[in-house]
Description:
By secondary structure, the chain is an alpha+beta fold. The chain has 6 helices and 12 strands. The structure holds biotin.
Amino acid sequence: MRRLDAAAVERELSRLGASLGTPLAVAAETASTNDDARSAAAAGAPHGAAFLADAQTQGRGRGGRSWHSPPGENLYLSVVLRPGLPASSVAPIALVMGLAVASVVERRLAPAARRGAPGDGSAAEVRLKWPNDVLVGGRKLAGILVEAQLRGDAVSSVIVGVGLNVHASSFPPELSARATSLAMLGIDDVPRELLAAELLQALGDAVARFEAGRLAPFAEDLARLDWLRGRRVDVAGVTGVAAGIDPEGHLLIHGADGVLRAVAAGEVSVIAG
Length: 273
Ligand code: BTN
């Protein structure tokens, strides 16, 4: 099993000119890179400080779920952001981070699809399940956990944690029908170090664009990648057909009563049938 090579990540970061990833901490094992980033942020870590681990013992997902984090296989990455935004504007950054991760995956999937790579890579398309699950062929390839620390009306820090399934060839039974990895999509020749650097570059670019233009520069990609559109969903008791994402980043749901409702947050259940 190959350990993550911190020097290789740093080389790729500088080759790509990434705005995030300095300083960089790479651990063989940690409880949760999001916890590492949060503690560092509380102690004054700057915008861009990044935390990678080869394995997590208490990897966390949204809604209090755990995140499958075995060693040697996948990417577990968290970064400290200090965006110049008021607290009232920060929530949609979660969507934008999802788009950034999706863009890295799309760039990697395109050549594999042209080669007719094994697995379901050639048929699979990258989609974003609101707010920020990255799906390929309907299965989850990456999850993102965004945790903001506010100080009154100001954003003190935002921790963005990304879990990307890279070399995994199987998943525990409870995940196997819902999860996928780059390897399972026919992409097994990209080092995790390069992927980590590409993610940090894409996240950094997306944060800068979000600071400058909020969601407007992302509207086209949000519509193009929206996996929920047209599906029947339930979010926090609001049921209906998903009808896109509004300029504030809220999920629009068209109810059976004909009313269009905008949901700001919540866990989406897709209703079969
Ligand atoms: C989700 O889809 O529920 C979010 C999953 C986020 C997992 C990543 S792995 C790196 C970082 N550290 C954590 O404990 N969680 C995030």
